[in-house]
Amino acid sequence: MDSPSTLAISRRRKAAAIVQLLIDSGDSPALNRLPESLQAALTEELGGLRTMGRAALDDIISEFTQEVENIGLTAPGTRDGAIMALADHLSPLLAEKLRQETDAVRNGDHWPALVALPDDRISTILINEAIEVGAVALSKMPVSKAAAALALLPGERARRITYAMSKTTDVAPDAVRLIGIALARDYANPPARAFDKPPVQRLGAILNATRTDTREDVLAGLDAEDQPFATDVRKAIFTFKDIAPRVKSTDIPNCIRSVDGDVLATALAAALAGDTAHVASAEFILDSLSQRMAGQLRDDAGERGKVKKDDAEAAMAEVTLAIREMVEAGTITLIDPDSAESGAGGTDETD
């Protein structure tokens, strides 16, 4: 309810006063999210605001605070805003169709969609694209977002882009618009993809569940066809022999908790009779457990004798599956093979 001191002040003037107060206090209100017509009206109103009495300002602040406290829900408020907010929760094809129907896309201005990207996504643009394109993109960002994205860049890249901004004085508006269209297509509105995961992860998951002989044959073929891809696939694969170099010792007790005792003993028996890499993983598991539990498992494994190949692969697969499930759930994190002192073991008959 308006007080006597604010009866003659319009809501637009009150909004201008609040914005000026926020700016004076060092805040950066996200005015770029408003329709341009409202941004222009607010600018005009603020331009006509010279002074305001303390009593009137206090009443405006009190009224503004009360209105904010009475808000129970905030939503995008525009169809374009709703599309951008829901895009990640819709089917990829529908999300892309709706993105193409936004006013910004139809009117040719794709920069609002780029400005709305998270800081790390904007830094990706600045790293991947040409220095001159990065300078234009950085120039189009709000100051706070540009500063945050710049902080994520390597020093040399940041210096080159900021220097290139000095060359943007005469860039034509059409060039900026075309750059916005190209960047939005690649970063803000990526084309719908048939697969959620990249090829390396998909093939790695398949080979994890494949018999050892088949897996090694496939990897040998990949080495001959595309060695970099084969290397990445090997990193995505996690088998029993990868336990020692890639799992933290403190994670082992939790990793084997869901594995049946007989299955674990069979896997250990086969691994202890296997090659160096498998022996290392088996000993690593036992060393990571209490002496009592390790001793019991070692005795159980010794009673198994020679384990058939199929039984060995099945038992080891259950152990590695339990570990992979914990990784996918975010409960544990595997050690990066590039940073580990010892990599994965060699090929053999069991995994």
Structural account:
- It is a single chain.
- This protein is mainly alpha-helical.
- It folds into three domains: 4-69, no CATH class; 79-188, Annexin V, domain 1; 238-328, Annexin V, domain 1 (Orthogonal Bundle).
- Helices cover 64% and strands 0% of the residues.
- The chain has 21 helices and no strands.
The CATH superfamily label of the largest domain reads Flagellar motor switch protein FliG, alpha-alpha superhelical domain
In CATH, the topology of the largest domain is named Annexin V, domain 1
Q: What CATH architecture of the largest domain would you give? A: Orthogonal Bundle
- Largest sheet at a glance? none
Shape: elongated
* CATH uppermost class of the largest domain: Mainly Alpha
- Strand percent estimate: under 5%
Q: What is shown here, in short?
A:
With 351 residues, this protein is mainly α. The chain has helices at residues 11-24, 36-47, 54-69, 79-86, 92-99, 103-106, 111-115, 119-128, 131-140, 143-151, 155-164, 173-188, 199-208, 212-225, 227-236, 243-246, 252-256, 261-272, 276-287, 291-304, 309-328. The chain has three domains: 4-69, no CATH class; 79-188, Flagellar motor switch protein FliG, alpha-alpha superhelical domain (Annexin V, domain 1, Orthogonal Bundle), CATH 1.10.220; 238-328, Orthogonal Bundle (Annexin V, domain 1), CATH 1.10.220.30.
List keywords for this structure.
351 residues, mainly alpha, 3 domains
Could you give the topology of this structure?
Elements: H1 11-24, H2 36-47, H3 54-69, H4 79-86, H5 92-99, H6 103-106, H7 111-115, H8 119-128, H9 131-140, H10 143-151, H11 155-164, H12 173-188, H13 199-208, H14 212-225, H15 227-236, H16 243-246, H17 252-256, H18 261-272, H19 276-287, H20 291-304, H21 309-328
Helix pairs in contact: 1-2, 8-10, 9-11, 13-15, 14-15, 18-19, 18-20, 18-21
